[in-house]
């Protein structure tokens, strides 16, 4: 290496050849096989409008894959058992979600569902989430007709609309509408049991190791509270406010506080013995309730809304 | 350099030496590569062959195996538009292709940066390119609507990487432009980009999970459009890559020698850095921030073929492609039905090796 | 050197140079300001009243439960990181050394996240030992690298940064596999939001022991600044001193990460800044200055993070990075002009 590098023409050929091989190989890999444009069924179809556009769905889809928990609950309301669920490999959550055991195939995590397994289930409808699955929408579309709805960041209204949309996709819009109506009736009945002069503010906080995440009026639980005629403690356009310390919670000073945790060792355990915590209205009036994080924050379905309402009635108003 | 083609050499000794060098290459690719002898041309050719065969084998395995087990007949059937068309053509093939292309791009980018900064520990990650791209991508994901993300993410990545690179070159030039400054400024920018990422995570914890996967690096969700886009990007970069490859050796000499060779040291460096930025941006757009691939691949390649640019660059491309392809394949099959992002597999397997490299590298310079 | 014990801490404090006193004054102001600013609309005078009048009122409770531990925690973490940075820089004779650039913070983070993933619900107290283990492992690697002799300044720093990148990737991997990113974003960025007295009690012993050791043995540690042969000819056992210094770095940085997450730049820039102050010089004085300068920087950064994003908060680690990067570049530039 004492002399300046002299370009060796042969090595250059190798270089160019290698690069060409790589590029060519990739081209072959990319291009081989013809276009397979989706798996649209041959029979009559109907058009469904969703977050990422419109999709032609077969008349009566039977084999449905749900990639988010709330869709499973919606499907259950509509009388369909999904063949595949992205369940984060925890079947017990699905059981908790539906309050019963169902037969289905796990297709992996909600974050990166296993599309090979999805395709091997030969679904005729896939329901995906707009936050997590936008990137794979096209790929999902080439497995089966796919509708994309907002579950992960969805408000209560969006979750209700989703039930109607899913009903429509299943070829039975009316059942969806009826399910929502029935749900609204249930909620109205529950709301009627709440005293009209309720002045306290309500809040759900998810307790994490160092701080709490406050769910605002724009969140799913926030809108459930409003449906019940209750006032959410935090009014904001963002559904959640994360990183809230004890001081922030004390400043919000909710009258009724639901704390969602996955278990012990969170901020709540560190705070609950302090004088400041004891000064929060909810703690002072013994209106702090520890609730299940799956039910209250992860699931986000119509059934969830009813569970939340019942929990409040049972705990706050002593109604069985 | 006698123009003797390999075919005309006497068969026996060639086979023997080929076997020997193949073994040497395998050893070089394994963990015990510390003292590989300086590679000669033939060793280099054998190294290419071995790496290419390994890459092909991994690619084939990646197409044949996965969460759903397919027989060879099923695979062929899938390739020709049969029952398993989706799995073979839309899922496995694009992933294999993207991992090869992105891995190759990161490996080559690493070689260029190490040459430009004359430091064997430089990589697109250390000087903040991947993190800068990560900031751009995360901002794009969080600020744009789901439908717009297809174009917003590439724009964000390219903007983030370019801003970081421009900042790196401009600031270090203001500070005197020495290589030490360049490395230090790069490290500082990397830390700053890291803080920006943390800020976005704190602002939008809702998307934190996805952001994490993206930052760790994942080939998941690659489709044919991704392959085409990356292929086109790399094809456009190719002339620049060839030019930069010609400068790798020159950049290795001191600035005075570069001048005496009739080249402008700053221009040589700028050329190498630019090529590295473009390659990194392309790769990061497709697979996220698999940062240390750009460090790992050049080192493995150097063991196998030595440090001459025209041999090192193709080998680094092959090595990078091989590592990413293997990592993605492993991530798909070890925890079925769950997918483990390739970046995680790569760091768990490659991390200890990198540590070993680090110790070796710093001792060598002692 | 014959009678080092004559120089006690108290005599050092008596001789304390003006900058220490000035900075201590500033720190006191910053701590009071930190106590008086917060998410709830407590007025300045009422917060001050809460701090001074122990009347059991809600204001007093808030100051006592939330704001005071937070300010105290920021002080302790700042002291730990700055002194650890000073020791690391002296130990490796490398101006780029710090718990962050050498990957020690990241080592502690990996260990903590791993522990939380395997055994959730341990709380802060349970993460201290893993944090030490992680910090010690990385510290050992870096020490080993720096012992190997004439490693260049930048080479060692690069090795540390690379190590840090790999460890950060490991943290990401653990977070993805345990699906807990959302819950840990604040801790990851480095934050004193979750401060309470239990965290203060976790870090306090290490701060006192570590900083006292740094001050007491400062003269001995100073020998590390000399090269090996000179140190040996002076009769100091360089290896023992280096081992002590490494241990201190691990204890100080590890306990800081355990309570507040990996906060960067404090350990890197504070030693550089105090070196430029008049009255700097021998290691003990520098340690004394760091002991005040680190807390000053961290308390101010935390205050800034709360004011800028009000009523939400910016984790202090982000603020220190925003302040630290330009400062670091400026320092690098000044270094060049010398």
TrEMBL record, chain A:
GO biological process: iron coordination entity transport
Pfam families: Peripla_BP_2
Location of the protein in the cell: Cell envelope
Keyword field: Signal, Transport
PROSITE patterns, per the entry: FE_B12_PBP, PROKAR_LIPOPROTEIN
GO CC, one annotated term: outer membrane-bounded periplasmic space
Entries under InterPro entries matching the protein: ABC_transptr_periplasmic_BD, Bact_iron-sidero_bind
Highest rank taxon of the organism: Bacteria
Family: Belongs to the bacterial solute-binding protein 8 family.
The protein, known as: Fe(3+)-citrate-binding protein YfmC
Provenance organism: Acrocarpospora phusangensis
TrEMBL record, chain B:
Residues passing through the membrane, by range: 46-68, 96-117, 151-170, 182-202, 270-300, 312-334, 340-359
Pfam families: FecCD (PF01032)
Gene3D superfamilies reported for this sequence: ABC transporter involved in vitamin B12 uptake, BtuC (1.10.3470.10)
Keyword DNA damage included in the entry's annotation: no
GO molecular function: transmembrane transporter activity
GO annotation, biological process: siderophore-iron import into cell
Similarity field: Belongs to the binding-protein-dependent transport system permease family. FecCD subfamily.
Protein name listed in UniProt: Fe(3+)-citrate import system permease protein YfmE
TrEMBL record, chain C:
GO molecular function annotation: transmembrane transporter activity
Broad class of where this protein is predominantly found: membrane
UniProt-listed InterPro entries: ABC_BtuC-like, ABC_transptr_permease_BtuC
Subcellular compartments: Cell membrane
Signal peptide coordinates: none
GO cellular component assignments: plasma membrane
Entry's transmembrane regions: 20-42, 71-90, 102-122, 129-150, 156-179, 200-221, 241-274, 314-333
Membrane-related topology note: Multi-pass membrane protein
Pfam families registered for this protein in UniProt: FecCD
Keywords annotated in UniProt: Cell membrane, Membrane, Transmembrane, Transmembrane helix, Transport
Domain of life per record: Bacteria
GO biological-process terms attached to the record: siderophore-iron import into cell
Similarity section: Belongs to the binding-protein-dependent transport system permease family. FecCD subfamily.
The protein's name: Fe(3+)-citrate import system permease protein YfmD
Source organism (scientific name): Acrocarpospora phusangensis
């Amino acid at each position: 290496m004492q002399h300046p590098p002299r370009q060796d023409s042969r090595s250059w050929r190798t270089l160019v050849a290698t690069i060409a091989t790589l590029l060519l190989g990739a081209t072959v890999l990319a291009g081989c096989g013809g276009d397979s444009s989706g798996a649209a069924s041959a029979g009559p179809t109907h058009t469904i409008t969703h977050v990422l556009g419109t999709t032609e769905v077969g008349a009566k889809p039977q084999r449905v894959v749900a990639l988010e928990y709330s869709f499973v609950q919606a499907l259950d309301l509509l009388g369909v058992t999904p063949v595949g669920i992205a369940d984060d490999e925890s079947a017990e959550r699905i059981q908790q979600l539906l309050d019963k055991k169902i037969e289905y195939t796990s297709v992996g995590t909600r974050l990166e569902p296993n599309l090979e397994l999805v395709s091997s289930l030969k679904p005729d409808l896939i329901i995906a989430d707009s936050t997590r699955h936008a990137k794979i929408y096209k790929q999902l579309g080439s497995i089966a007709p796919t509708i994309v709805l907002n579950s992960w960041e969805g408000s209560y209204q969006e979750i209700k609309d989703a039930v109607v949309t899913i009903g429509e996709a299943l070829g039975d819009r009316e059942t969806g509408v009826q399910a929502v109506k029935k749900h609204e009736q249930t909620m109205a009945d529950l709301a009627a049991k709440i005293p009209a002069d309720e002045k306290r503010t309500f809040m759900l906080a998810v307790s994490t190791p160092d701080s709490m995440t406050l769910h605002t009026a724009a969140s799913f639980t926030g809108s459930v509270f409003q449906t019940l005629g209750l006032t959410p403690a935090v009014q904001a356009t963002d559904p959640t406010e994360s990183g809230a310390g004890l001081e922030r919670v004390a400043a919000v000073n909710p009258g009724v506080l639901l704390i969602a945790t996955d278990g012990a060792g969170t901020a709540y355990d560190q705070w609950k013995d302090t004088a400041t915590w004891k000064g929060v209205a909810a703690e002072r009036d013994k209106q702090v309730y520890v609730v299940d994080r799956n039910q209250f924050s992860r699931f986000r379905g119509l059934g969830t809304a009813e569970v939340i309402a019942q929990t409040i009635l049972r705990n706050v108003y002593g109604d069985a | 350099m006698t123009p003797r083609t390999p075919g005309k050499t006497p068969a026996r000794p060639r086979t023997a030496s080929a076997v020997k060098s193949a073994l040497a290459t395998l050893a070089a690719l394994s963990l015990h590569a510390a003292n590989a002898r300086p590679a000669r041309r033939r060793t280099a050719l054998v190294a290419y062959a071995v790496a290419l065969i390994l890459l092909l084998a991994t690619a084939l395995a990646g197409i044949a195996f996965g969460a759903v087990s397919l027989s060879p007949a099923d695979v062929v059937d899938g390739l020709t538009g049969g029952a398993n068309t989706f799995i073979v053509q839309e899922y496995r093939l694009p992933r294999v292709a993207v991992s090869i292309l992105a891995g190759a791009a990161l490996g080559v980018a690493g070689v260029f940066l190490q040459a430009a900064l004359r430091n064997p520990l430089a990589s697109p990650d250390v000087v903040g390119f991947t993190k800068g791209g990560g900031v751009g991508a995360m901002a794009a994901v969080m600020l744009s609507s789901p439908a717009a993300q297809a174009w917003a993410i590439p724009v964000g990545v390219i903007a983030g990487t370019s801003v970081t690179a421009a900042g790196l070159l401009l600031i270090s030039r203001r500070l005197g432009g020495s290589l030490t400054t360049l490395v230090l400024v790069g490290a500082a920018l990397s830390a700053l980009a890291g803080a920006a990422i943390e800020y976005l995570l704190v602002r939008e914890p809702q998307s934190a999970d996805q952001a994490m996967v993206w930052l760790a690096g994942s080939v998941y969700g690659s489709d044919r459009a991704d392959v085409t886009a990356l292929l086109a990007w790399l094809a456009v970069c190719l002339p620049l890559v060839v030019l930069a490859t010609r400068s790798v050796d020159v950049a290795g000499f001191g600035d005075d020698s570069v001048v005496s060779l009739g080249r402008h040291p700053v221009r040589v460096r700028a050329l190498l850095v630019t090529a590295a930025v473009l390659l990194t941006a392309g790769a990061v757009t497709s697979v996220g921030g698999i940062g240390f691939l750009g460090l790992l691949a050049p080192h493995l390649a150097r063991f196998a073929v030595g440090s001459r640019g025209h041999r090192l660059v193709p080998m680094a491309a092959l090595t990078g492609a091989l590592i990413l392809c293997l990592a993605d394949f492993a991530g798909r099959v070890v925890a079925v039905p769950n997918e483990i992002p390739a970046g995680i597999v790569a760091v768990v397997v490659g991390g200890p090796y990198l540590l070993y490299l680090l110790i070796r590298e710093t001792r060598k310079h002692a | 050197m014959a009678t080092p014990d004559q120089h006690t801490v108290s005599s050092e404090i008596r001789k304390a140079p003006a900058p220490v006193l000035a900075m201590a004054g500033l720190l006191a102001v910053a701590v009071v300001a930190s106590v008086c600013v917060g998410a709830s609309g407590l007025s300045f005078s009422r917060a001050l009243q809460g701090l001074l009048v122990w009347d059991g009122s809600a204001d007093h409770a808030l100051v006592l439960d939330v704001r005071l531990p937070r300010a105290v925690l920021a002080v302790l973490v700042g002291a730990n990181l700055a002194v650890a940075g000073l020791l690391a820089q002296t130990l490796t004779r490398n101006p780029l050394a710090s718990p962050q650039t050498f990957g020690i913070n990241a080592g502690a983070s990996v260990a903590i996240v791993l522990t939380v993933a395997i055994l959730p619900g341990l709380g802060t107290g349970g993460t201290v030992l893993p944090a030490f283990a992680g910090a010690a492992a990385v510290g050992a690697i870096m020490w080993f690298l720096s012992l190997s002799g004439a490693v260049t300044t930048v080479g060692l720093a690069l090795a540390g940064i690379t190590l840090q990148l790999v460890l950060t990737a490991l943290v990401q991997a653990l977070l993805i596999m345990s699906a807990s990113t959302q819950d840990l974003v604040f801790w990851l960025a480095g934050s004193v939001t979750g401060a309470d007295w239990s965290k203060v009690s976790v870090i306090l012993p290490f701060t006192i022991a570590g900083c006292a050791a740094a001050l007491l043995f400062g003269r001995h540690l100073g020998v590390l600044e000399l090269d090996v042969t000179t140190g040996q000819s002076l009769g100091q056992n360089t290896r023992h001193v280096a081992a002590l210094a490494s241990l201190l770095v691990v204890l100080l940085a590890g306990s800081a990460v355990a309570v507040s997450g990996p906060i960067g730049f404090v350990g890197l820039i504070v030693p550089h800044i105090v070196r430029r102050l008049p009255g700097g010089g021998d290691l003990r004085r520098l340690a004394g200055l760091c002991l005040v300068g680190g807390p000053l920087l961290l308390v101010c950064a935390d205050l800034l993070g709360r004011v800028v994003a009000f009523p939400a908060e910016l984790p202090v680690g982000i603020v220190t990075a925003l302040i630290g990067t330009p400062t670091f570049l400026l320092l690098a530039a000044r270094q060049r002009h010398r």
